[in-house]
Amino acid sequence: MTQAARAGEDRTAEQPLQPVILGADIGVYALARSFHEQYGVTSIVVAGAALGPVQHSRIVEHEIVADGHDPRQLVDRLLEVARRLPDRRLLLMANSDWLVRVVVEHRDELEASYVVPFLSAELLARISDKATFAQICADLDISVPRTIVQSFGADEPDVAVDLEYPLIAKAASSADYQDVEFEGKKKVFEIASPDELAALWASLRAAGYAGRFVVQELVPGDDTQMRSVTAYVDQRGEMTLACCAHVLLEEHTPSGLGNPAAMITYRDDAMLEQARRFLVSTGYVGFANFDVKVDPRTGAFRFFEVNPRIGRNNYYVSAAGANPTRFVVEDRVEGRAVPPVVVDREVLYSILPHRLLLRYVRDPQLAARVRGLIATRATAHPLRYRRDLSPRRRFYVLAAAVNQIRKFRRWYPEPTDTGF
């Protein structure tokens, strides 16, 4: 932390907390809800539009910029907000990879006014790249799918791929992939043959993509083999929050593939220990969210990636009884050490109608757990906040549920053994 940032914290020690969040998706609303539940504050949301999840909400104030994809406009608006609110303790949050990068790259400008609870630019570059992430994990004896890297610079040849098909292909850095457009673009590709892989490479080159893609072995098993880990590491380097969830179903639209849509929180110390090892060994600070899959052939955890943020589905942590905003506020705003918490309460987190979810949970024991949690009302939906359910909000939540049914009918009409 810079000297100016420390002076700013001292100066605002007794001032009211004001969260400021970049973005406008369901994860941003979930963060705003958690801040409201914990501290009774409204959050300022800075984005290019007031999208459905945050629209007509009583717990957010909107700051709309002309181009929500222009880093300079976002940073300038953040600085303008800070000038208007000199009497507030401003805590800056972001919940997508490219927005985290914007914040980190402009840290020197922002830290004079904001608490910026993110990792360094150097570490962000290392861990946000799936290829580098895989190498770090290998060095720490954390299992990952076998990974081959394809670069797309000038005159880069196609690398030899000696993996068994079908295989998985995805951008090494989602931030680099953010603004690339081409027909058939997806977040994650299942590749059935060498010809399909060659066609993908050709599309990426034609679109002017200059980053890297990773090609990985396909770990078998459907969505229910996936796990999510959310953690917070404080300024002392201690993991003070750890929560994991058993994924039941992921989204299956091309742009949302791999985002969990329903999960059950639980405790798995072995998985959390591997996440802790990664975070502590790399010198990580702030929130982190890991995507993990249990390999049904061996029962081993296969770590896929770490997101340098709290994650889109962060409300599962609050729902399980550990409001994550408390950990960052007490650590970075109030400068207090928080005793470590490992969440062990079981809750069903879902953005789906329960009947739709149960169509896709094929394991009888897992389905029985889901029904039991529904029966005891141990459930949570991030948008169903009783203190923020105006008629327009109620209509949006209902419409979103209907839209989920339509999306699954189109993109994933029946469960498969691989989740593709």
Protein architecture, described:
It comes from Cellulomonas gilvus (strain ATCC 13127 / NRRL B-14078) (Cellvibrio gilvus). It is a single chain. The chain is of the alpha/beta class. 37% of the residues lie in helices and 22% in strands. It has three domains: 3-116, Rossmann fold (3-Layer(aba) Sandwich); 146-217, Dna Ligase, domain 1 (2-Layer Sandwich); 223-411, D-amino Acid Aminotransferase, Chain A, domain 1, CATH 3.30.470. It has helices spanning 3-11, 26-39, 71-84, 97-105, 107-110, 121-128, 130-139, 174-177, 194-206, 269-282, 315-319, 324-333, 354-360, 364-375, 391-411, and strands at 17-22, 43-47, 60-64, 89-94, 114-115, 147-151, 167-171, 189-191, 212-217, 226-233, 239-250, 260-266, 286-294, 301-307, 341-342, 348-350, 379-380. The strands form three sheets. Strands 10, 11, 12, 13, 14, 15, 16 and 17 form an eight-stranded mixed β-sheet that branches. Strands 3-2-1-4-5 form a five-stranded parallel β-sheet, sandwiched between helices. Strands 6-9-7-8 form a four-stranded antiparallel β-sheet, with helices on both faces. The radius of gyration is 21 Å and the shape is globular. The relative contact order is 0.13. The mean pLDDT is 94.
